[in-house]
Amino acid sequence: GQQLNQSPQSMFIQEGEDVSMNCTSSSIFNTWLWYKQDPGEGPVLLIALYKAGELTSNGRLTAQFGITRKDSFLNISASIPSDVGIYFCAGANTGANSKLTFGKGITLSVRP
Amino acid sequence: DAGVIQSPRHEVTEMGQEVTLRCKPISGHDYLFWYRQTMMRGLELLIYFNNNVPIDDSGMPEDRFSAKMPNASFSTLKIQPSEPRDSAVYFCASSLQRRKLFFGSGTQLSVL
């Protein structure tokens, strides 16, 4: 089946730094989503991307839909302590039985 | 607006007991999803419904797992009998567009 790869599993940054995460797939997707999960809570949608090459921002977050449609990137600028959490990418295609496939997530730690 | 509501938040039970997890989706959403999250496997889709009808239950691990959606505002996931390997966080999610999922806070299940 389709798999999404997110690495590394954990990232440690200093408050104020920028951080980039990427997500790659062996298959093409026509939708990419980025979610964040806080401890003890469910994932929350951050950004949705629907077109190859699309670049979308949400505050300090910027995500891009890769041209090949096999990858996506999430950038967080000027990190703050509340950015701590697990960041998941997810991909999907159109079609009656299309499912959302999730990566295993990257745990982000921000040192004050 | 209320988000996806799950109950209970925590469930501790003994092996062999029946467990029922409950979910109230966001009003007006026509898709409902049940996911299981573990450290080893990440987020796994168990089953999803469209307009209260089960569409794909291929992720349900065994016959011990069953899910129902008797109406648009309620769904249950039942495990009978439960086993220690069922211990995980179970999430319910709903959506209006199939890909933009909104997750509940999850049920942390521990089977002793």
Give a description of the structure.
The complex is a heterodimer of chains A (112) and B (112). Chain A is built from no helices and eleven strands. Chain A has strands spanning 4-6, 10-14, 19-25, 31-37, 43-49, 55-58, 61-65, 71-76, 85-92, 101-102, 106-111. In chain A, strand 6 and strand 7 (61-65) form a beta hairpin. Chain B has 112 residues and is mainly β. In chain B, strands 2, 4, 5, 6, 9, 10 and 11 form a seven-stranded mixed β-sheet that branches. In chain B, strands 1-3-8-7 form a four-stranded antiparallel β-sheet, with no helix packed on it. The relative contact order of chain B is 0.33. Chain B is globular and about 35 Å long. Chain B has no helices and eleven strands. In chain B, strand 4 and strand 5 form a beta hairpin. The mean pLDDT of chain B is 94. Chain A binds chain B through residues 31, 33, 35, 40-45, 48, 88, 92, 97-100, 102-105, and chain B through 4, 42-43, 45, 48, 55-56, 91, 93, 98-106.
In short:
The complex is a heterodimer of chains A (112) and B (112). Chain A is mainly β and 112 residues long.
Question: Which helices and strands appear, and what pairs or packs with what?
Answer:
The complex is a heterodimer of chains A (112) and B (112).
Chain A: E1 4-6, E2 10-14, E3 19-25, E4 31-37, E5 43-49, E6 55-58, E7 61-65, E8 71-76, E9 85-92, E10 101-102, E11 106-111
Parallel strand pairs in A: 2-11
Antiparallel strand pairs in A: 1-3, 3-8, 4-5, 4-9, 6-7, 7-8, 9-10, 9-11
Chain B: E1 5-7, E2 10-13, E3 19-24, E4 31-38, E5 42-50, E6 53-56, E7 65-71, E8 74-79, E9 88-95, E10 102-103, E11 107-111
Parallel strand pairs in B: 2-11
Antiparallel strand pairs in B: 1-3, 3-8, 4-5, 4-9, 5-6, 7-8, 9-10, 9-11
